[in-house]
Amino acid sequence: MPVVSSAPDERPAATPEQLRNDVWLAAALLVSAILSTWLGQVAGVYALEPPHLGWGLLYSVALTTPLALRRRAPEIALVVVAIVYFVGMSVHIPEMYVGSIALFIAMYSVGAWVTDRRRAMIVRVVVIVGMFVWLLASMFRSAATAGEETAAEFSLFSPAAALMMLQFLFNVVFFAGAFAFGERAYVGALSREALEQRTRELERERELTAAQAVALDRVRIARELHDVVAHHVSAMGVQAGAARTVLERDPEKARGALAVVEQSARASLVELRQLLETLRTSDTASPGGSTLRLDAIGELVRYSTENGMPTTLTVVGEPVAASEVAQVNLYRIAQEALTNARRHGGPDARADVRLRFDGDQVELEIANDGRVRYGGTPGLGLVGMRERAAASGGWLEAGPRPRGGFLVRARVPAGAAAASGSVSAPTDHGVLA
Q1: Which has the closest alpha carbon to 175: 119, 123, 116?
Q2: Residues in contact with 120: Cβ distance below 8 Å, sequence separation at least 6, in sequence order
Q3: When you count CB atoms within 10 A of the terminal residue's CB, does the N or C end of the chain come out lower?
Q4: Tens place of pLDDT for every residue, the chain, 433 residues?
Q5: Is the pTM for the entire model greater than 0.90?
Q6: Which residue, among 64, 38, 43, has the nearest Cα to 53 in the 3D structure?
């Protein structure tokens, strides 16, 4: 999976959607600036005769157009907006609000998008210092042109001094806010990028862990394959040797031995194919020996009870000899179903395992009364259980019960009896706690 990484001090590049939004923002501010200029001229914002409305239109265009490039070239946008704002206020363009908004956005954009933090700091400090120098010069020039006021009227508690202080404090808050919000946006973007990078790394680690789990599971299934099929191959070797020995003096015995070899070969091929089909299933490691049997389900029930979910086991019918493949797959189905019940059923869940022997069929049923997880796609556990049932020549159904909880039912043919002997059922044919 390709990974797009950035250096620790670089913010991710702007997306096409963000760039389009900048154009729409500039267009909206342009319309607002034109409307504000016209209304200001009608309202007579300045006592002096304002410039012609055409100059106001030019001011509005020059003020807002650079904001369309506020992510591509934030420093240039800020410098242009600051100069246009300075000129507009100096020639008394009757626009009072959109200019301040545009200047705030431009300064915020430098803090949020310039990756060279030293350059971003210098550009913003130069603009802020220039604006304050111009503000102070404008206030003192306005005071000097009055001429008639006495020096006492400009004392610390005079209305003129209070107005100057109010304007000064407003600009301090204005520029400090634009500066702080820009810095916060840049740091937040870096934090999100670092989090996304860690998420991608965890995803790669998860995929690697899954691949390792699959490899380990294949080794385990290969071990089970050896245990299931090896006795067939051994019997074939013994019977073939016996047939070769008596072939000359007792052809009938040789023919019988060869018939056993043929039967073992066919059974071995069937079980080999069925076990190979289970290689796609990812299950937990088996507790105990390499080949698992139906009589080990009692251990699963006891393990489930000891780990917080009361579970009972009921055996119905007379136990029949089941093939090794059927026993292994039924055990795995019971194991996965109980694991899912403990994981999703909740703290008060209880489970009931029923093993039924019906002639040459074996049915396994695992029911719980816990909660049911809705939504999402089916997990690999259910897929694996269905594949195991199909690999044994049977079927599996799983779903919520009408009265609450979840039910898993598998039914498989017992198959040919294993050469090593019959399969024994759990020792207690009643209910086990």
Answers
A1: 123
A2: 74, 75, 110, 111, 114, 182
A3: N
A4: 333 333 445 666 778 888 888 899 989 999 988 888 888 777 776 655 666 778 888 988 999 999 998 888 899 999 999 999 888 888 878 887 888 899 999 998 898 888 888 888 998 889 888 888 887 777 776 665 544 444 445 555 566 666 667 777 877 888 888 888 888 888 888 888 888 888 888 888 888 887 777 776 666 666 556 555 655 675 677 678 878 888 888 888 888 878 877 877 777 777 677 666 655 544 444 433 444 678 888 888 887 787 778 999 999 988 887 887 788 888 888 888 888 887 777 778 899 999 999 888 999 999 998 777 655 455 556 777 887 888 788 999 988 888 888 999 999 998 743 333 333 333 333 332 2
A5: no
A6: 38
Q: Token digits for 188?
A: 């937040």
Residue in this structure with the two tokens 């995803």, named with its chain if needed = 203
Residue at 357: amino acid letter? F
